[in-house]
Specification:
The chain is an alpha+beta fold. It folds into 2 domains: 2-133, no CATH class; 151-215, no CATH class. It has 9 helices and 4 strands, in the order H-H-H-H-E-H-E-E-E-H-H-H-H. It has helices at residues 2-27, 34-53, 62-71, 76-89, 98-101, 135-147, 151-178, 198-204, 207-215; strands spanning 94-96, 107-111, 123-125, 128-130. A 4-stranded mixed sheet has the order 1-2-4-3. Strand 3 and strand 4 (128-130) form a beta hairpin. Helix 2 packs across helix 4. The longest helix has 28 residues, at 151-178. The two termini are 33 Å apart. Keywords: Membrane, Transmembrane, Transmembrane helix. The chain crosses the membrane at residues 7-28, 34-54, 66-90, 151-176.
């Protein structure tokens, strides 16, 4: 059963990825180049193998079949990004967790340490998570599936906007701090933000993060 589930996950992921790349290649021919297609298919197949072993998708449920297809069509960009970044970086700080992945439609790496990246700061890229399930991280998973190919570009735009606002505020913040009207020269995020310091507000004030924090705990 486990072997069939894993094979089924790989076949569906690879087939829908190939179809998506072929369709996109009609408008953007470079995506249909054999080298590009091969790299994407290898990334997807390896990630599907991991997902199959961890039983991330319950192929006995119609909803999970649909999510698997969405992850490799509409949300393919996010899935490939997570497959490259998450599955290359997270193994250095965590271990794949079947208990936290099975039937949850994502791949979870649980941190090896009791503090730091993966414990104090959780992260989700595509369908790959570091640190385990919480409503906040599950919301990022939902966001990536809902916004599909626009999710990562929008996140980048949001970061540029909040960074510019933080930089523009800095001179005024320095004056206010000098006048003892503020205790920091930079915009400071609330205590619940996983990231503090100058970059903390830039990270926290993005719409996707505000939405995720409003949805529940990390």
């Amino acid at each position: 059963m486990a072997v069939l589930r894993t094979l089924g996950t790989i076949v569906v992921a690879a087939a829908t990825t190939w179809f998506t790349m072929w369709a996109l290649g009609l408008a953007l021919p470079f995506l249909a180049e054999p080298a590009v297609l091969l790299v994407v298919l290898v990334v997807v197949a390896v990630q599907a193998l991991i997902a199959g072993i961890l039983a991330s998708y319950d192929l006995g449920r119609v909803g999970h079949w649909l999510i698997l297809v969405v992850d490799h069509t509409w949300s393919l960009l996010n899935t490939v990004f997570g497959g490259i970044v998450g599955n290359l970086i997270y193994p250095f700080v965590g271990r794949p967790s079947r208990a936290d992945s099975a039937g949850r439609t994502w791949i979870v790496y649980m941190p090896r340490s009791t503090s730091g990246f993966g414990t104090d700061v959780l992260q989700t890229v595509g369908i790959v998570n570091l640190g385990g399930a919480g409503q906040h991280e599950r919301m990022h998973l939902l966001q990536s599936r809902a916004f599909g190919p626009t999710y990562l570009p929008l996140f980048a735009v949001f970061y540029v906007v909040t960074a510019l606002l933080a930089i523009l505020f800095a001179p005024l913040g320095a004056l206010l701090k000098a006048a003892h009207r503020r205790d920091t020269w930079y915009l400071r995020p609330p205590a619940k933000s996983a990231v503090q310091g100058f970059f903390g507000w830039i990270y926290y004030a993005t719409p996707f993060e505000l939405w995720a924090y409003a949805s529940g705990n990390p």
